[in-house]
Design goal:
Layout lengths: L4 H12 L3 H18 L4 E3 L3 E8 L2 E4 L6 E4 L2 E8 L1 H7 L5
Antiparallel strand pairs: 1-2, 2-5, 3-4
Helix pairs in contact: 1-2
Length: 94
């Protein structure tokens, strides 16, 4: 089960020596900055990069009816995991 926001803040507060409130404010500001900078690409070193990507128009199928439909082009937000993170997380898979 993933950690909750409160668990993350408690852990980070203990590790940094900051109050839980200050840690929560720091995390919130990091999130706001990531949203603002995503258009240019926002990097968290060692973790990954938040990027805005143009997805081309394409043909798809309605899974219920099997009918072919046109899916329009759109912009999507993606998070690209850093190689360092992949290597650290998947170390036991090798």
């Amino acid at each position: 089960m993933p950690m909750t926001k409160s668990q993350v803040m408690t852990y980070m507060a203990k590790k940094s020596g900051l109050s839980k409130k200050a840690t929560g404010e720091f995390i919130q500001e990091l999130v706001v900055l990531a949203y603002k900078e995503a258009k240019k690409g926002f990097v968290i070193p060692g973790l990954g990069k938040l990027v805005l990507v143009d997805r081309k128009a394409r043909m798809g199928r309605n899974p219920k009816t099997g009918e072919t439909i046109q899916i329009p082009a759109k912009k999507v937000v993606k998070f690209r995991i850093a190689k360092q993170a992949k290597d650290a997380i998947l170390i036991y898979k090798k």
